[in-house]
Amino acid sequence: MVLKDVEVGSSTESYFIIRNSGQDPIRSLSADADCNCSIPSPLPAQLNGHASAEFSIRFVAPYQPRSFKHIVRVQSENGRQAISIIGNATKTVETSPRFLAVAISPGVNTFNRAFEIRTLNNKNITASEVKISLSDKKNAIEKPEKTIPGINLTLFSLPDNKNILQGFFQVSRYELNREMPLQGEIAIRLSVEDGSHRDVRIQFLISENPDAVVQPSILNCRYNTASHRYEVDPFRIFSTKPVNIKEISIHASQEKVSFEKYSHAFPGLNYFENMIRASITSDSSALNLKYTTLLIMTDSLGDLKVPIIFVETKPVEKENSVGK
């Protein structure tokens, strides 16, 4: 069996049909492979005469571009037959990050994580199908669903960059109604402008009681004409212990960010709240980016990172322009 090009690191499922061309049943029927693969739909133990059965082999493509070959062995009391799966792993799509960790903190209900999918050949993409799967206690993927209560996924294209999809993964702790932690997978089928398809899979982990969480998890930044600075929307750090912020900087350029902190303790609820107001100078080199990351350095919680999006930029003045 020869596969078309598959995306590096993607989870691929190949389907096979086996037919009993005789009249006598084939017993003790099974299949395995040499690639640490899983068999989501195994063969029946017995295949009656002139009957057929379908089974599938699921494997992860190589993480680097290269060709690959896997051997599938179908066995019965009558003998063994080998089937080859031959393919080529190519890299045309980049997903960042490929793993989403959502840390649920006391006092907060909704949590967001952002990710980005882009084509390396600049071809336009759209999401034609999205499914979310949760893992059971044995880390086996359960049946994919288009929606899961308490988990929401939003995908949108950038107006001037159709080769980029941005996604927001949102979790509501009160709607999940399941034991924590939760592990799962987001499967996105991409339709490319040349008519081809690419499958992207992103793993996620939802866990409780972290040391700290930043809310909202995505920040907007706007230009203030009065202060002539870019002001970040106020945000809060919820933590299980007091926080001393040593420095806030822009991750892309290492530039320091001015900030003010207001702290509140909630001893009865066993958590602390810190409200932060931050601003960026109007000549920062990070303003050439549409989005970047704030790096919050603390003495007790390590480094906290939160995405920031420049939604309003400095008005263009005569004989002077500011890039977004």
Instruction: Indicate the percent of residues in helices.
Output: under 10%
Poorly predicted parts: 316-324
CATH class of the largest domain: Mainly Beta
When the domains are counted, the total is: 3
Per DSSP E runs of 2 or more residues, the count of β-strands stands at: 25
Second CATH tier, the architecture of the largest domain:
Sandwich
Structural class category: mainly beta
- Mean pLDDT across the residues is 79
Query: What best-fitting shape do the alpha-carbon axes yield?
Result: elongated
Q: What is the terminal-to-terminal distance?
A: 49 Å
CATH fold title of the largest domain: Immunoglobulin-like
Query: Looking at this structure, what is the CATH superfamily of the largest domain?
Result: Immunoglobulins
Instruction: Report the radius of gyration as a whole number of Å.
Output: 25 Å
Strand content: over 45%
Sheet having the most strands: 9 strands, mixed
| Helix/strand order, N-terminal first | EEEEEEEEEEEEEEHEEEEEEEEEEE
